[in-house]
Write a structure and sequence with these properties.
Elements: H1 3-7, H2 13-36, H3 47-65, H4 71-94, H5 96-103, E1 107-111, E2 114-115, H6 127-136, E3 145-150, E4 156-160, E5 183-184, E6 188-192, E7 198-201, E8 204-205, E9 216-218
Length: 226
């Protein structure tokens, strides 16, 4: 195998310098366009804006290392993308239904300490991802949360019960900190591992009335530490 052909091919000092200049120029213009969009961070991006970023990456990538691709045509693409973005955001601000179609709507994922289910009795999202979000906010179990809302930009907003109203709930700690069981060996408060439905159970096997699952975990009752 010709390693020089694999790693360098026809690359020489002049070509490498040209690639460096092209890359720096395009990178600067990408940063300027993103700054012009008014966003402060990746977590603020909607699905539409992520699509814009992908389009920018495609427009910026080729001129960075293809000598036959000029920079100015890519800048024209940049200007068109920015103009289109401004038009779409203006329409979204002016027409609520258009914004709803473009950005989507916030989704309630937790309500009264339980995971919201769709019409088929299933959770519409991956629990582990949101459990991580909850742990990052200092939440130990679902009984501490009155309402959880998945925002259109991917962040999750939590509204908490006051300490005196916190109820038993499903732990959101890693699985190594609690034990799932299909058969209750000691009477007490248990939470469904799937939907967080929390009830008092006697010994034996039980099926959750909300989601029809059979896995349970001992509920926690601790207050939030703030």
């Amino acid at each position: 195998m010709d390693w020089q052909e694999v790693f360098l091919k026809d690359l020489d000092g002049a070509v490498a310098l040209e690639i460096l200049v092209r890359t720096l120029v395009m990178f600067v213009f990408v940063l300027l366009l993103l700054r012009a969009s008014g966003k402060k961070g990746v977590r603020q991006l909607s699905i539409f804006e992520v699509a814009i970023i992908i389009a920018l990456g495609s427009a910026a990538g080729d001129p960075m290392f293809h000598q036959e691709d000029a920079i100015v045509p890519s800048l024209i693409v940049f200007a068109a993308i920015l103009g289109f973005y401004r038009l779409i955001t203006w329409l979204a601000a002016r027409y609520e239904k258009f914004e709803s179609v473009l950005e989507g709507d916030p989704v309630v994922i937790i309500e009264h300490g339980e995971i919201s289910l769709n019409n088929k009795g299933k959770s519409p999202f991956a629990k582990d991802e949101f459990f991580a979000e909850m742990r990052a906010k200092g939440i130990e179990h679902m009984g501490q949360v009155r309402l959880g809302i998945l925002e259109t930009n991917g962040t999750v907003s939590f509204f908490y019960y006051p300490d005196e109203e916190v109820k038993p709930g499903l732990p959101v700690l890693p699985p190594t900190h609690y034990e799932e069981c299909a058969e209750i060996s000691c009477e007490g408060e248990y939470s469904c591992c799937y939907c967080a439905n929390t009830v008092k159970l006697r010994t034996g096997q039980h099926t959750c009335k909300r989601c029809k699952q059979t896995k349970w975990v001992k509920s926690l009752t601790s207050k939030r530490i703030t």
